[in-house]
């Protein structure tokens, strides 16, 4: 009896308590400065999202054509399909032109036979074509749009103006949930992902999940400052670490593709690395400004103008160089055939250098200038290496004094060798500790080695510096 009475009192009193608290809260003044600030930020988020959502589209990619799907339909179970097919890949894109041009990630549309793009207002368009840039994982889609259709489009912002701690919003279609908005901050800048050789990334903790790929990361003005591309996750979905291609990179890539159907990059042919404290001490430098030249590729503009190992590049066309990727961005966007001006530090003194840029050669041809009429190459496909037998002329141009060995002509993108950072232009002198003066010895040594255990390559870099690298299954 007593328990039942207590129970009744508890259940009766609690509602009265909360009801009374609600009246007290309603009567109190909630318009505090803190509330006003939060409400103002909420409004900023809302306005930014409203500005970008109309131009944020769903990209539906099919590996088969409509005709092929029609042919396959009778063979499928009699299950009612939705009016709008879900496709083989669903991602996000951004309308960047009122004529119907969409920017997205290449991995959303790669190998597609047909692409459909759905706007938030329900309009559905079919793509005429798409062109991509695999090295930055970006693609541009041209839509078939009737002349009288008016399409919204996004505005790019300045990604260089963003700083760590700045608020951002990520918009997309995660798990096919249309026009989802998540908020976060810029967690880091200049992140390098080894899968993508021609861009750095903004890192954000705004929720990014499968389906967000190709969608915008925006600032509080509603301007696109990044293209959501990848996540770091142990579970396959958001864990607070997302990566976006900076808008200043993405916009340049998009303009190149729109104009040329491809990306034309300039090149001077120099391999660089960040300056370490040991380098600063070894070279007698007063600061760690600039990037260190490992070597100039044989036959490249940099070699022709005398750039050397241990040179430090301080500026490029007047712009300070504070990271390897900064030099790469400035170089590739320079005018092909134009003159770029460098300031370098060598032996404690500053020098000016003028270098005429050339078009960036394909990866497989990067070392071609040094080969001359060299005999047929040998492809080590499991490692992803294209090799040729060295000779006196090649070794002289590489400034390598060791005789014999196999020269690395190219490293295939995405290969095990690339993941192990095996450099182009290096001389392989030993494999697994076995001397490899020629192709026959190289093949024999490779047959004795195991990728699962890791293959040790003893290399000599252009200029004579020795290095050991291990290539293994990832």
Summed up, what is this model?
Helix content is 23%, strand content 32%.
List the main descriptive attributes of the protein structure presented here.
alpha+beta; 474 residues; 32% strand; 7-stranded antiparallel β-sheet
Task: Describe this structure as you would to a colleague.
The protein is of the alpha+beta class. It has helices at about 1-25, 35-50, 65-70, 105-110, 245-260, 275-280, 300-305, 325-330, 390-395, 415-420, 440-445; strands at about 55-60, 90-95, 100-105, 115-120, 125-135, 140-145, 165-170, 180-190, 200-205, 215-220, 225-230, 240-245, 265, 270-275, 290-295, 310-315, 320, 340-345, 350-355, 360, 380, 385-390, 405-410, 425-430, 435, 455-460, 465-470. The strands form 5 sheets. Strands 21, 22, 23, 24, 25, 26 and 27 form a 7-stranded antiparallel sheet that branches. A 6-stranded antiparallel barrel has the order 1-2-3-6-5-4. It is globular and about 75 Å long. Residues about 1-25, about 70-85 and about 365-375 have low confidence and may be disordered.
């Amino acid at each position: 009896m007593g328990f039942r009475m207590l129970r009744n009192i508890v259940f009766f009193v609690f509602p009265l308590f909360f009801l009374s608290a609600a009246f007290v809260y309603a009567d109190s003044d909630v318009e505090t400065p803190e509330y006003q600030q939060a409400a103002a930020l909420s409004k900023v988020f809302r306005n930014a999202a409203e500005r970008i959502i109309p131009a944020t589209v769903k990209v539906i990619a099919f590996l088969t054509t409509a005709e092929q799907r029609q042919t396959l339909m009778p063979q499928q179970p009699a299950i009612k399909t939705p009016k709008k097919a879900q496709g083989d890949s669903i991602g996000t894109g951004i309308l960047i032109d009122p004529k119907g041009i969409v920017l997205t990630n290449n991995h959303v549309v790669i190998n597609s036979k047909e692409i459909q793009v759905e706007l938030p207002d329900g309009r559905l368009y079919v793509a005429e074509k798409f062109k991509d840039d695999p090295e930055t994982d970006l693609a541009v889609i041209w839509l078939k749009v009737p002349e009288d259709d008016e399409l919204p489009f996004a505005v790019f912002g300045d990604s260089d103006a963003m700083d760590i701690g700045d608020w951002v919003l990520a918009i997309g279609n995660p798990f096919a949930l249309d026009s989802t908005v998540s908020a976060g901050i810029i967690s880091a800048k200049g992140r390098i992902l080894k899968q993508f050789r021609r861009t750095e990334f903004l890192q954000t903790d705004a929720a990014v999940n499968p389906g967000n790929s190709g969608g915008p990361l925006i600032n509080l003005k509603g301007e696109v400052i990044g293209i959501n591309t990848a996540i770091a996750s142990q579970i396959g979905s958001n864990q607070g670490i997302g990566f976006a291609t900076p808008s200043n990179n993405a916009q340049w890539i998009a303009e190149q593709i729109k104009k040329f159907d491809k990306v034309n990059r300039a090149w001077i042919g120099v391999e660089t690395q960040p300056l370490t404290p040991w380098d600063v001490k070894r070279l007698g430098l007063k600061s760690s400004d600039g990037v260190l030249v490992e070597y100039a590729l044989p036959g490249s503009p940099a070699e022709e103008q005398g750039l050397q190992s241990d040179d430090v590049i301080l500026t490029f066309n007047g712009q300070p160089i504070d990271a390897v990727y900064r030099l790469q961005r400035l170089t590739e966007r320079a005018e092909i055939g134009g003159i770029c001006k460098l300031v370098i530090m060598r032996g404690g003194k500053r020098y000016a250098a003028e270098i005429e840029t050339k078009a960036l050669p394909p990866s497989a041809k990067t070392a071609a200038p040094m080969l001359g009429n060299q005999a047929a190459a040998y492809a080590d496909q499991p490692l992803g290496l294209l090799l040729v037998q060295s000779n006196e002329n090649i070794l002289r141009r590489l400034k390598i004094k060791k005789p014999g060995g196999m020269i690395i002509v190219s490293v295939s993108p995405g290969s095990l060798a690339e993941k192990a950072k095996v450099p182009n232009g290096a001389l392989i002198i030993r494999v697994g500790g076995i001397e490899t003066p020629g192709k026959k010895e190289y093949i024999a040594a490779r047959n004795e080695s195991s990728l699962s255990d890791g293959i040790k390559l003893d290399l000599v870099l252009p200029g004579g510096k020795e290095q050991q690298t291990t290539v293994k299954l990832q």
